[in-house]
Amino acid sequence: MVGGDTDRARKLQKVTYSPLVLTLPIFTHTSNNPYQPLLSSSDNDNEDDDYDDEDDDSLIVGDNDGTSDTIVSSSPLQQQSSNSYSYSVFGDDNSTLTTSSPLSSSTTSYETIEEEDDKQTSSSSSSPPSPSSHPSPSYPLLLKEYFKVIQKSGRDWNKELQKLLFDSPNIEKFQKLTFLSYDFTMTAQSIGMTIIKEKHLPLDHKTIQPEPDLGGLAGGEKFMHRNIMFKFTQDPMVDSQTHLYGGSKPNEIAASKSAGNELRGLSTFFQNVVDLKNLGNNIHLPLMCIIDYYGYRLIAISILPITKNTIIYGSNDGGKTVNNVDNELSKMMKIIGDNMKLKGHISGAVNTSFIYGPGDLEIHKSTIDSKFYALDFGRLFPPLFPLKEKREIFYKLFRPEFLKLNSIALSSDVFSGWSSKDVDKSIHEQEVKLATDRLLNDHLKEMVVQLETDWTRGYLNFSSDLGIELHKKGMNLGLLGRIRSITNPFIQNEKNQTLVGLILCEMVARVLKQAYKQELCKLKIHHQSDSPVILATVQFLNRILSKKNSFWFLDIKQMIQEKYNQDHGLDVKELESSTDLLPSISLNRIIERFSTMVGLDLDSRIFCALNNNNSGLVVRVVTTDIKQIRPVLKHSNMIDRSNGIALYMQATQLIYSHIGRNRDEDLDQFIDQFNTDHSQEISLLLASREKLQMASRSSTTDASLYHLLGLVELELFKLRSNERDHLLASRSYLQISISFDSGSISALIALATVYSLLDNHDKAQDCFKQLINQKNCVNNETLVPLLYEGSLLYSTRYNNQGKLNRVSFHILLNLFNLIDDSTDLYSELISRLITIEMIYYGNDKYSQLYEMIESFQSPKESNFLNLVGPILEKIFSKYPNLLDDYKKDGNFLFGCLLVSNQNTCPSFFKKVGNWFENVDVSPFTFTLANKLYQYHFEKYCSLSTNHKTLQIRSRQQLELFIKTPKNILKLFIFGQDTLFGLLENQDLLKHFGATTRELIFEQMTIHSKPSDGLNHFKLLESIHFDNHFCSKSPIISMIINNFLMTLKRLTIGSYGYTDQPFQEELELEKFDMMESLHLGSSKYYQIKSFPKSLQTLTLSLGQRNILELVSIQCPNLHSIIINDPDSEFYHQQLYHLKLNRLQSFKYHCNGKNEYLEKNQFNQGLQCWIGLSKLFLMVYHPYDGWNDFFKNLPNLSSLTLQGNEHLNCTIQSKNLENLNHLRIISNHFETKRMDNFSKLKKLTLQNHQSLNDNSY
To answer: Where is region (Disordered) located (predicted)?
Structure first.
């Protein structure tokens, strides 16, 4: 026995069992046939499945599903480098779509493999079923010579699939996987429909002939076409007198269910293979689907490069020899078994081995490509304890969701002849019995309570897919009756609908589906005509939809009892023949569910009539109401999953293209992303979410799929920051993902991210602790780069969302702790980032930062600076020059001022002092400067003694500067009280006056002339008035007249309002030294004259004829900015400026007026020949652009802002010296631009799309 645990197999375990409701029968073994149940009870026939539906996991009619790789990363930045991907072949659920391609509609019905519990008969009474191949080689038959079977004209499905799975994750890969799976299912459907329709034709009349050489030990008719093998589901013979599922009589319902178990097992197996240490690179599976059509079930599977002689694990001879001969594979199977809660055990009737999973699970090592191929998953999951008939163990199996929840692993071969040689079989049997009791009692009751809660809260309603909800909780749909019997019948939702009503609707729909399939199987359909099926369908529906027969009084109740046996869920009153069940259900919903499950398209008039249900005949169905009867496909979720991943990658590629990540193409491919309109990205994410949700409906234990859904919701939140529901959905998906894979690094990071965004920093920190505690499993080489990229993604460099920045900071805190003693590159980078985030967060965000650091620190401190200080001290002791390149950033400096503390971080405090010693307040924004002087003035003064800029906001601050006078060049004076306080202090006034070059007056309301103290400012060159209030006296003149001989720059900003406004008239011609003048918008002063020395003028003042004054009185003017978007004054008088020899002209006014034409800008511009910079706003058509630009040969910088009327063609022959072009428009076309050899810089703003441009 290679790879087996001999000691474990031989050792009896000591287990303490709690009392059970069930009674364990005596087990005996009387046969070497492993398909003989080890039960002493009689071999009763079971024509009805009282536990599970044939379609155990709900049905989907619609988009092809698909499986593929799933990126499991905390951010899209991981997509290009991560090797972790997931290929899951799993089914879908009860939703309905029709498609003709993976992205559009068709006429094909798809349902997931999970609908395997409803009963179906696939043979007629006059034609006994042929044996199934289940016990020996599975549906992918062991071919004698693989290369002989591959047809030259067909596709090698397996080769294409394996090649794609080995490709690195990218959009192209997932798109190819989508279409490969789609092509396979479409091909299988087309061929399968023909095979089913020809089932009862004579052999020589069939267009697709059966292949006798493909028969296994069990026999049965099999077909090979286009490299796909097809086989009808039938109950196989295990010996000359016994059927595998039915005993003495065939049980085709169980055989149909077993085929679903095969596909479900295959899907779940591969899902777990890939989730566990990338084992998907080592164990491979075929493509597979199931076709339900006209009452029959057909299995389709791609052929594999294996033979009978290539088996190395499991048995292909009916259990005579169970193999386990490869150490590497044995180790992988142990990992997979442990993760799936499949218990290792001794298996085999003669030559045994210790294995995980069932004995007839086969794994081969191909002699062609040396890959491991797994097949035959029909009994992968352990069976439930058989309550009614012993052969239930071969098709009534636990769901994978319940196994995940179960505390111990269970044996797949329990109660069968496969475990006859296992000395621990009694322990395995008792464990399964305990698990069955838990499922049918405690777990079921807990699930019902949750259903009732969801129903009352509105989370569950009549439009919900009940099957999916039950599957997520590990419940088989065969338990619907039992569930209904313990559900509170009086619980209603806001629409007064009952939960027991919804359950009954689901039960009735499934009973009808089973009966309908049985009716179709009796028809012996043939290829020549579909009319018998249509007529039978019409008769079946009319029987259901009529109130004048006994159907809803007697027939439906008998059918429910036959299907669900004693657990039928009907109460005593409902069982009475006088009780009509119609009032207890929604007939419209039942017909919709029934139609979806059987692939039936009905005319809309049927549903309209059902909505207007009256007494008597509900509606009469005629043949024209049957629009179509489609095949229903159960298949893997490869199509939806691959499609969803591809859409997600496309969305994130667009989202993050601006930071140069997650992108394979050149930057110009993404030039249309300069705008802030994210509608395209949002639409891609919504489409991705829809596809992934469809894939997840059946892949209910797929951790990677739920992880990806969580990431989709997280990206949607980033683009819709005000929609908290995305965060809640992301949290839910990620929690589910981690419940199935608690060791997922990236899922934990993503969940921590969501918790931080929800301001739940303690829970976020718990995720990080859980992550860091896995260091014995995950080394720093993996963890640190992953966290680092996540922190960078959410940092202030790339996001304006404060919440996202908090995430970055929280990640950095943990990273810093993780690599505290490291000296590598990451240590310095992380130290740099954490300091930047901490300091930027110091700006107005104490409370948010405090909460995060508080959750990070242990024990918790009470003071913010006490929390931040030790971290900063540790960083700057290690890297003293870490952020010297940031010292000119005002926001950064201000943050440093807030978080520095001489007691908690002396090294950092000293560094900040050095920065402030050499840098004055000029980098600060006006708002930050106000905060600095208003709230942190003393600390600012204690850090530096070399200020060049000073704001004085009160007399108290003046007293501080008396003690420590500074060499000030720029002086801000706030309020008249401060001004008069300064003028009263002669010593400080003389000191300031000796050096100050610029005075800024703000919030002044002066009613009397200031003292002569202003004469001390003998070097003053610039005066700025801003945000002051109108007074009863000419304030501006009273101040500026003190500086007639020195004033070079004058700015008059905005005015406030007073009860008695005063309009001041300013005579400025006497200021012979004035070079620059800025006039803000106000009606409280008027310019009577301009200085002749003026060179630069900025106008926002709405004054008539002002440009005429400028043109006449300012001969030296070379630069003018007119910035008054709402004014019409300038539009009529721009022509005056043609006489000025301008070098720079900015006209930032509303361009809807035809000012270019009215001022005749296409002529008379001889004085503008030296113009080098031009800015125009244009919102009106203009045809004179060519003549206009011809007059500007020396133009080097051009900015045009406008809308669709900005239709000029920019030609190089007119602008030969242009080196910077800036376009602010969402309609301008670059194809209107000629080639510019000297153009060095092109700026495009507000461009929605440049796909049609060709510059």
So the answer is: 31-138
